[in-house]
Amino acid sequence: MENYNEEYFASDSIKDEAFLKKYISLIEESGVILNNKSILDVGCANGELVRILSQTNTCYGIDISDIAIQNAKKHNSGMANNLLCHDLGKADFPLNIEFHVITMFDVIEHFHNFSYLQTLINTNLKTGGYLIVTTPNAHSLQRFVVGNEKFVGEKDPTHVLLFTAYTLDFFLRRLGLQKKELFCGFGFYLKNNFLTRTFPLGAQIFAIYEKVENRK
Predict the structure, then answer these.
(1) Which residues, other chains included, contact 13 with Cβ-Cβ below 8 Å and sequence gap of 6+?
(2) Which spans in the chain are helix H?
(3) What is the C-alpha separation between 13 and 48, in angstroms, rounded?
(4) Less crowded by CB within 10 Å, the N or C end of the chain?
């Protein structure tokens, strides 16, 4: 946890408001309307996504870092009870709440243990709800051009596992979810279209999966 310090949360790895709003646009273009929903942001960092979405939704955020949560509370006045320091890799989600949407933006590659993610989906994601994941793409064209050491997925020392579009799809289906959207975009070309769905060479995987039945 010592790796998740002030310097880490001030780095380029943390998405800014403009980037997060692009994510929201992509989600809603896929037919998932983020309005009047209960939403959990796993790995909420400084709470920027919670701040944006809480204008029209009931939002919660968790992060492994106490530093991040303290910053998130500063940026989200009046939401202290909705922002929790919690390691989903070590324990179940601490609140008995069901969510319409669970977001995990650049988080899944940090996990050492996925059993609690399964429990989160079984217990805290509503049937018909969505898990939305972004993660670096191990088959990114960027990795082959710049080399492993300079590839964004490997530069971060807190990353422990990288996915391809296929392995992420396989993993999420094994968690009992059904694919709604999966595409691989670049930072300069973050779009969901035939190109990014058919040729999974973008730097980042963007996945939206639905819980189609209750597996409790």
Answers:
(1) 106, 156
(2) 6-9, 17-29, 48-53, 66-75, 115-124, 141-146, 152-155, 165-174, 194-198
(3) 13
(4) C
| Contact call for residues 49 and 142 (beta carbons, < 8 A) | no
**pTM for the complete prediction?**
0.92
Query: Left if phi > 0, otherwise alpha if psi is -120 to 50, otherwise beta: which for 142?
Result: alpha
In one letter, which amino acid is 96?
N
Determine contact, residues 105/23, Cβ cutoff 8 Å.
yes
**What order do you get walking across the sheet with 177-185 strand by strand?**
83-85, 58-63, 38-42, 99-105, 125-136, 204-211, 177-185
b/e map of 31-57 (b: 16 or more CB within 10 Å)?
ebebeebbbbbbbbbbbbbbbbbbeeb
Helix residue ranges per DSSP H, 6-65: 6-9, 17-29, 48-53
pLDDT at position 169, please?
98
